[in-house]
Amino acid sequence: MSDRLVIAGEGEQIGDVIVPEGKVGLGTVCSVTINGIFLKSGIPLVSKFGGVLQTEDTEPSRFAALISYEGSSLDPLEIFIRSNMTDVISAVRNGTGRILASFREVPVVCVDEAHMLAKKIAKIGIGGILLIGKPNQPLLEMPVGIDKAGIVIVGGLNPIAALEESGINSESKAMSTLYEYSKLMSFKDSLKMHL
User: What pTM, to 2 d.p., does this model score?
Assistant: First the structure.
């Protein structure tokens, strides 16, 4: 979703979330950030599904599992993490695996603007938009509404899924706080600081 994160020790805060004793806090950029950026630019974006996206040779191929945002009071991506349905580590290592992603729709009149905005935000480290579909056509076998185009966005919880896959237990609080983007550090810088 983004190459930025925040790490906090016990008792420290990430936004208004206090890291519990004996824990480390890891804050990642939520994919809902893209909804806000699009909306601020006059492009309505509707979240439809959260899912597990199969990748093959670094390319998205199909959704292996989906949960409608309308039909769930929990974040669907948290459910998939807890169900051990991801293989983020393999997707990173060899390009074939299962990552968390969401499916959204945008009006067809906004598709060109959506492409331009995706390029613009990728330059500031928010490269989570994997695919933007063609008007009125399925995207990765997912149908879209009339006069809509599909968008596939990487889930912000993929780093957490990788931790779980590595046997590191976590407790997720998806979409739980706001944090100033300029205070986030790059993944590479965080590795240098914490190794």
Answer: 0.91
Check whether domain 29-167 has CATH 3.30.470.20, yes or no? no
* Interatomic CA distance for residues 32 and 177, integer angstroms: 12
3-state secondary structure of 180: coil
Q: Which residue is listed with tokens 């896959």?
A: 165
Contact predicate 76/69, CB 8 Å: yes
Residue carrying the six token digits 């809902």: 32
Exposed, middle or buried by CB within 10 Å (0-12, 13-18, 19+), for 170?
Answer: middle
Tell me whether strands 148-154 and 129-132 are parallel, antiparallel or unpaired. Answer: antiparallel
Instruction: Tell me which residue has tokens 């990765």.
Output: 140
CA distances from 74 to 77, 152, 168 (A): 9, 20, 22
- 25: tokens are 């806090």
At residue 39, what are phi and psi to the nearest 5 degrees? -60, -40
pLDDT tens digit at each of 195 positions of the chain: 898 999 999 999 999 889 999 999 999 999 999 999 999 999 999 999 999 999 999 999 999 999 998 877 778 999 999 999 999 999 999 999 999 999 999 999 999 999 999 999 999 889 999 999 999 999 999 999 999 999 999 999 999 999 999 999 998 877 678 899 889 998 878 777 755
